[in-house]
Amino acid sequence: MFAIKEARFLAQDIKLFRIEAPRIARRRQAGQFVIVRVHEHGERIPLTIADSDAEEGTVTIVVQGVGKTTRLLNMLEAGDAVCDIVGPLGEASEVEGIGTVVVIGGGVGTAIAYPTAVAMKQAGNHVISIVGARTSDLIILEDEVRAASSELFVMTDDGSYGEHGFVTQKLQQLIDQGVPIDRVLAIGPVPMMRAVAETTRPAGIKTIVSLNPIMVDGTGMCGGCRVTVGGESKFACVDGPEFDAHEVDFKTLMQRNALYRQQEQAELAQIADDPDRCERELAPCRLQQQHPEVGQRVGQTTD
Amino acid sequence: MAEKLPPKERMKIPRQGMPEQDAHERAHNFTEVNLGLEVAAAEHEAQRCLTCSDPKCVGGCPVGVQIREFVDLVVAGDYLQAAAKIREDNVLPAVTGRVCPQENQCEGACVLGKRFTSLAIGNLERFVADYERQAGQVGLPERAPLTGKKVAIVGSGPAGLSCAGDLVQRGHDVTVFEALHEIGGVLVYGIPEFRLPKDIVREEVDNMRKMGVDFQTNVVVGKTVTIDELMQEEGYDAVFIATGAGLPRFLNIPGEHYGGVYSANEFLTRVNLMKAYDPDEYDSPIYDCRGKNVAVVGGGNTAMDAVRSALRLGAGNAYIIYRRSREEMPARAEEVHHAEQEGVQFMNLHNPVEFLGNDDGYLTAVRLIKMELGEPDESGRRRPVEIPGSEFEMPLDAVIIAVGTGANPLVQSTTPDMATNQRGYIVADEETMRTTKRGVFAGGDIVSGAATVILAMGAGRKAAASVHQFLTTGEW
Ligand SMILES: Cc1cc2nc3c(=O)[nH]c(=O)nc-3n(C[C@H](O)[C@H](O)[C@H](O)COP(=O)(O)OP(=O)(O)OC[C@H]3O[C@@H](n4cnc5c(N)ncnc54)[C@H](O)[C@@H]3O)c2cc1C
Ligand code: FES
Question: What is the pTM of this model?
Answer without folding.
Answer: 0.93
